[in-house]
Write a structure and sequence with these properties.
Number of helices of chain B: 25
Structural class of chain A: alpha/beta
Strand order of the largest sheet of chain B: 14-18-19-17-16-15
Distance between the termini of chain B: 62 Å
Distance between the termini of chain A: 13 Å
Radius of gyration of chain A: 13 Å
Low-confidence stretches of chain B: 130-187, 280-343, 540-550, 727-738
Shape of chain B: elongated
CATH topology of the largest domain in chain B: Heat Shock Protein 90
Oligomer: heterodimer
Strand content of chain A: 15-25%
Number of domains of chain B: 5
Low-confidence stretches of chain A: none
CATH class of the largest domain in chain B: Alpha Beta
Mean pLDDT of chain B: 73
Structural class of chain B: alpha+beta
CATH class of chain A: Alpha Beta
Number of domains of chain A: 1
Strand order of the largest sheet of chain A: 2-1-3-4-5
Strand content of chain B: 15-25%
Helix content of chain A: 40-55%
CATH architecture of the largest domain in chain B: 2-Layer Sandwich
CATH superfamily of the largest domain in chain B: Histidine kinase-like ATPase, C-terminal domain
Number of helices of chain A: 5
Number of strands of chain B: 22
CATH topology of chain A: Rossmann fold
Largest sheet of chain A: 5 strands, parallel
Order of helices and strands of chain A: EHEHEHEHEH
């Protein structure tokens, strides 16, 4: 059974790019277009890993991470942030919210795979 | 190869997002420039530019990336209140926006990469001027995250590594600073010695230190020691805490950066030490691997490394050290609120919508067949009215799926106006109304060009220069109004200006000169105004760069008419001109009059019908055996018998008094009277195209299926009128419709 990753990003092209890159590495990918939908999909799918953008409408990445972590069943689910932002302040906010790691866009597929292996067995 | 194609497809979607993003950004910035400076507006613009930047990086559009990045930085500071949000700034950002739009166009292959030097310098000037806190704490304020993202484009990194390290690694392939000193010995690096003690919080946030160890092992690391001294008795052991200190050895060929990345997600208070051993020159092993000579040593215990402000940083402590002198991270907005973005959407291929629309059309037809064939009692028994209502609702809903706000077509206008203002030195205030009016997608796609031309025409020809306006007692700033509204099944788009109006004497002279009208033709004011749209007419003495281009208003008219619409012009000298496009809301549904001729049924599009007449004896006069005219309150309109046009086998020639004459008007060529036997009905019809099955037939524009299942052909009034007029005298009945 391949690992299931939920990617949350408001850009459809970014979701597709992630899907193409990660499907090629043997992951099963599902997507959601904002935090609200992302949280719904988390509950539906219970994925092995959540990868989320920060700047999104309705519910941003920070809020999504907090909402996911607030649920006991997702306490141990690794969460990676994938964002074009890279300020230390944002990263530490993400960590406070409960993110496992931070990846900066644009991403390289191979390194993204390595990063995933470091958080998702 | 298929992956390439896949990427191309994704890129195509990215471009769509760019276009949407640009629309959002422009609308926001325009509001901004007009003084509507709310947090939501700024956040919306920021997010739009941010997304463009993200995709630009992913697809390697570096020029776009660099520019979007600078733009985003400015917006971020505006959002954070560090740069004062004023209307003037909005204006400045709009100018920068135009360059951004050009960059997007270049990325899409529609034009060259713009010369963005001045625009970029303007943005950077805003950045420098707008961060006073930084300026005071660091003498040479360096826009903090500036170079990282742009340079990241072609590199293959993900930027896990905090900026300070990443930049040196990616920008210059030179050896890391710490190793520069012993460059001679670089050929053979010492092996890495690694110590790793996951902290108590090691497994917080879903992290798993074991995976880091596995990753290191995958890179070739061997565990040489596991220090278990801190391991508590089983009873006291907390399964989610780290107690073991691991020591590993790793081949020296591995780059430090790879190691850095490995530890990137490790909880910040874990102990992480790594250094090369056996370095000939550098004495203690620890010093060699220090990322920067003047930064705290890598091997220092984490407590010493974590500067207070970085204490909770995501990156491991050894890497978060900010080189001395570097500016602190800029203050961030207190709270990034949830953005009010557009509603959730999915993308559907338009061809699939069309297919759905077509099927719903069939459903409507089946419905009316049932309606015709069932007795009234059966209607009630099978609840036909309910089914009909449901069908109608489905139809409306499917239609609305294709409908989009005309805003998309209007969004280009502000830019055109800005460009024209600077090219003509005129001052223009653009007022837009009704941009939420929804129109079928096919219509939106096709009105862009006519609209652009009408706007250009209004500013270039319609409005006077500020001096002339002042001399005429007007506000030096001209006004151009753009509006859209729905009227029944039509959409009315109007471009009006408060300029000088049409110089009718000049237009008339020109038309005579060009042989479009004869010198003695009696022409009403309206006729003269309409000459502007006549083929081959252009009043600009010198074809101007702006509205000229050798394309006249006649092309606009042709385009609009191809959409089944028409153009109306009205002008008041000294007060302005307005051009009105009247277009069908959709090209798939038609309001039609069903007529019967020799037992066959035809549809006359209702939009063309002026009136229908039961002729009095003698009102229809035969000019020759094949041509007749009807006397309509003193003017004569040619009459065609539909049975003649399509050579229907007629038993006997009906007298006009037994027939009906439908007066239909074409914007192209005037009026015609169509002689038919009876009028059956008036209803909305689903248009079926004929061209999939038949060659184009002059005089027919399509077909529809009636309630009884039979087919009725739709008459093409424009074609019929021109055929009628080409053989006989030319009639115009302007104003008759009113």
């Amino acid at each position: 059974m391949s690992k299931l990753i939920l990617t949350v990003d408001d850009s459809a092209s970014m979701r597709m790019l992630l899907k193409v890159s990660l499907t090629a590495q043997g992951y099963a990918i599902e997507g959601a277009e904002d935090g609200v939908r992302g949280l719904e999909r988390m509950q539906e799918l219970d994925p092995d890993l959540l990868i989320t953008d920060i700047n999104m409408p309705h519910m941003d990445g920070f809020e999504l991470i907090e909402a996911v972590r607030a649920r006991p069943e997702f306490r141990g689910t690794p969460i990676l942030v994938l964002s074009t932002e890279f300020s230390d302040e944002k990263k530490s906010r993400a960590r406070d919210a409960g993110a496992t790691g931070w990846i900066t866009k644009p991403f390289d597929a191979e390194k993204l795979g390595a990063a995933i292996r470091r958080v998702c067995p | 190869m298929s992956e390439d194609r896949e990427l191309d497809e994704i890129q195509a979607i990215f471009f769509e997002e760019c276009v949407e993003g640009l629309g959002t950004a422009e609308a926001g910035l325009t509001a901004f420039a007009n003084g509507d400076i709310s947090a939501d507006v700024i956040a919306g613009v920021f997010r739009a530019v941010h997304s463009i930047k993200g995709g630009a990086g992913a697809f390697g559009h570096n020029a776009l990336l660099t520019f979007a990045h600078a733009f985003e930085n400015v917006l971020e500071r505006v959002r954070g209140g560090e740069i004062a949000a004023t209307a003037a700034l909005g204006q400045q950002l709009l100018t920068a926006f135009d360059t951004l739009a050009d960059h997007v166009a270049a990325a899409m292959g529609k034009g060259d990469i713009p010369q963005d030097g001045p625009a970029l310098a303007g943005l950077n000037a805003l950045l420098e001027g707008g961060a006073p806190e930084e300026a005071s704490s660091a003498p040479a304020p360096e826009p903090e995250p500036e170079p990282a993202a742009p340079t990241a484009a072609e590199a293959d990194e993900m930027g896990f590594v905090p900026v300070a390290v990443a930049l040196e690694d990616f920008d210059a392939p030179a050896p890391p600073p710490a190793l520069a000193g012993d460059a001679g010995d670089n050929s053979r690096e010492g092996d890495w010695r690694i110590a790793f003690a996951p902290s108590r919080a090691a497994m917080a946030n879903g992290a798993e230190p074991l995976l880091v160890i596995r990753e290191l092992q995958r890179m070739g690391a061997r565990v040489v020691n596991a220090d278990l001294t801190k391991l508590p008795p089983l009873r006291e052991l907390e399964p989610e805490q780290g107690y073991i200190r691991w020591e590993m050895v790793l081949d020296g060929a591995v780059e430090q950066q790879e190691l850095d990345e490995c530890f990137d997600f490790v909880a910040p208070d874990s102990l992480i030490e790594y250094a090369r051993e056996n370095q000939p020159d550098s004495g203690p092993a620890s010093a060699a691997a220090t990322p920067a000579a003047d930064a705290p040593a890598v091997l220092a215990p984490p407590e010493e490394l974590a500067a207070p402000k970085d204490a909770r940083d995501l990156a491991p402590p050894v890497l978060t050290v900010v080189p001395p002198g570097a500016p602190p991270a800029p203050p961030q907005p207190a709270e990034a609120k949830a953005f009010d973005g557009p509603s959730q959407t999915i993308r559907i291929d338009v061809t699939r919508l069309d297919m759905l629309l077509n099927l719903v059309g069939e459903l409507v037809i089946r419905n009316s067949i049932l309606n015709d064939r069932l007795s009234p009692e059966d209607h009630e028994r099978v609840e036909l009215p309910q089914l009909a209502r449901l069908t109608r609702e489905i139809q409306d809903n499917v239609m609305s799926l294709r409908a989009q706000p005309i805003r998309q077509a209007f969004s280009r206008v502000p830019r055109i106006v800005r460009e024209l203002c600077s090219a003509t030195q005129k001052q223009v205030n653009l007022e837009v109304q009704g941009e939420g009016t929804e129109v079928d997608k096919s219509v939106i796609e096709k009105i862009g060009e006519p609209l652009t031309h009408m706007i250009r025409n209004a500013i270039d020809h319609g409005l006077e220069s500020p001096e002339e306006r002042v001399a005429a007692g007007k506000d030096p700033v001209g006004t151009v109004r753009l509006s859209a509204e729905q009227k029944g099944a039509r959409i009315v788009i109007r471009v009006s200006d408060d300029g000088r109006g049409i110089d009718r004497e000049r237009v008339r002279r020109k038309a005579i000169e060009k042989g479009i009208v004869a010198p003695d033709d009696p022409l009403s004011d309206e006729d003269i105004d309409n000459l502007i749209c006549a083929p081959g007419f252009s009043t600009a003495e010198v074809i101007s760069n702006i509205s000229g281009r050798g394309v006249g208003m006649d092309v606009v008219r042709t385009n609009v008419e191809a959409l089944g619409g028409r153009i109306e012009i009205s002008s008041t000298p000294g007060q302005g001109t307005s051009f009105t496009m009247v277009l069908p809301l959709t090209l798939a549904i038609l309001d039609g009059m069903i007529v019967r001729i020799e037992g066959q049924r035809y549809v006359v599009p209702l939009a063309h019908v002026v009136e229908s007449i039961r002729p009095d004896p003698g009102q229809v006069k035969a000019l020759s055996p094949t041509s007749e005219v009807i006397d309509l309150r003193g003017s004569y309109v040619p009459v065609r018998r539909v049975s003649d046009i399509f050579a229907l086998p007629a038993q006997e020639r009906r007298s006009p008094e037994e027939s009906l004459v439908i007066i239909a008007e074409s914007d192209l060529a005037g009026c015609i009277g169509l002689m038919v036997d009876t009028i059956d009905d008036r209803r909305e019809l689903v248009v079926k195209s004929l061209d999939q099955n038949l060659y184009p037939i002059n005089g027919l524009s399509g077909a529809t299926i009636l309630g009884d299942g039979s087919i009725a052909l739709i008459l093409d009034i424009d074609a019929l009128v021109s055929t009628a007029n080409s053989s006989g005298a030319r009639f115009t009945l302007k104003g008759m419709a009113a």
